[in-house]
């Protein structure tokens, strides 16, 4: 029997406009709301990412982070 989806945690999140647009697009395409889409992504994190690409993207993101904050 599948686990019941209960969205029990709410937390303030700061996201870039690009990140939020991509989240909304993913949620819309999947037929979910933004909270359900985030729950899906994090519950299935290890099976929906490519470890090598994630590491490279994270390194690039961190390198550009200070400039992006200005």
TrEMBL record:
This is Uncharacterized protein.
